[in-house]
Amino acid sequence: MDRERNPEDTPELFVERDGPICTITLNRPERLNSLSLNGIKALLASLRSASRDGSIGALVISGTGRGFCAGWHLDEDGVPGLPDETLGVRQAHLMAEYFNPVIEAMRDMPVPTIASINGVCAGAGVSLALAADIAIAARSASFVLTFAPRLGIIPDLGATWILPRSIGWAKAQAIALLGERIGAPTAVDWGMIFDAVEDDALASRTKALTDRLAASPPRVALEVRRAFHAAQRNSLTAQLEYERLRQRDLLDTPAFAEGLLAFQEKREPRFHQQTPADK
User: Fold this and answer.
1) What percent of the chain has pLDDT over 70?
2) Is it the case that residue 272 has pLDDT exceeding 90?
3) For the domain bounded by 2-214, which CATH number is listed?
4) What pLDDT digit, counting tens, does each position of 233-271 carry?
5) Which of 57, 193, 219, 222 could form a disulfide with 135 if both were Cys (CB 3.0 to 4.6 A apart)?
6) Is the whole-model pTM more than 0.70?
7) pLDDT for position 275
8) Rounded Cα distance, 140 and 121, in Å
9) DSSP label of 57
10) Cβ neighbours of residue 183 closer than 8 Å, sequence gap 6 or more
């Protein structure tokens, strides 16, 4: 793979390309890849850069060492703020400026995203993993929400929205209140992540999935993501209408035409640079 310079030029994150697959790796192993101010800025810049790169077919987020991401490094010195600004006000500003936009950038990513969870996933790191389209983990990986029992705050960066929808209200509320560590196999059983594999198979499993996703129709991940999000607020009648209107547009795209032709010719579709209408 070719390593590229990070847009923020920080050692805390690096970007690699393997054909159409882009991998963003958090690189602060001595702190289990907890995010510093420079780290979250670099992650946001890298996600935005990837979203503008039409040559990318799939995006992976992973970490180095024993951790995927241990969340925000709360006791970090040197975080700018006004003289009379409280920690809460300062953190709320950082969430609005950098953290929430990271989740929104993943939500709006035109290509499929995979969280390849190599180890400890804690706090905001859980939210980052949950924001991916597909999350897979090494069997030794674990998930823990320390917000409430250790810090007296709530899960954030979308965790309170995603978790109850993926594992159910009872389990989501319990793990938020208790802060219990959830192993990767349990996370699969609960519907929190897609798959857990042996540690030494994580890289190959990630590669196999990203190769498949990179071959899918351009921007189809964005369409699927938007459809599922719309379903969270729509009635069944409204969602049926949403689906009808999207199919009306998508059935007239070059991507569908190629897929239909490939089906008729009994071959794999070749979508190339065809792009469904983004409406």
Assistant:
1) 90
2) no
3) 3.90.226.10
4) 999 999 999 999 999 999 999 999 999 999 999 999 988
5) 193
6) yes
7) 46
8) 11
9) -
10) 139, 141, 142
Task: Write the pLDDT tens digit of every residue in 121-147.
Answer: 999 999 999 999 999 999 999 999 988
Residue from 207, 217, 223 nearest 254 by CA: 217
Q: How far does CA 43 lie from the centroid of its chain?
A: 11
Note whether 146 and 93 are within 8 A (CB): no
The answer to whether residue 95 scores a pLDDT higher than 70 is: yes
Four-CA torsion 45, 48, 52, 56, nearest 10 degrees = 90
Question: Which residues partner with 21 through β-bridges?
Answer: 18, 58
Burial pattern 134-164, b for ≥16 Cβ within 10 A else e, equals bbbbbeebbbbbbbbeeeeeebbbbbbbbbe
pLDDT tens per residue, range 163-212: 999 999 999 999 999 999 999 999 999 999 999 999 999 999 999 999 99
Q: Quickly tell me which residue has 């590229």 as its tokens.
A: 4
Nearest to 176 by CA among 193, 163, 187, 194: 163
Tally of CB atoms within 10 A around 214: 18
Q: Which of 30, 25, 32 is nearest to 63 (CA)?
A: 25
Q: Which two tokens stand for residue 209?
A: 């999935």
Classify 227 as helix, strand or coil. helix
Nearest to 106 by CA among 22, 161, 57, 48: 48
Domain range list for the chain: 2-214, 220-264
SS3 (DSSP) at 135: strand
87 burial class (0-12, 13-18, 19+ CB within 10 angstroms)?
exposed
Strand-pairing partners, residue 117, are 137
Instruction: Give the pLDDT confidence of 25-41 residue by residue, as tens digits.
Output: 999 999 999 998 889 99
CA terminus-to-terminus distance, the chain: 34
- Looking up tokens 């009808």 gives 244
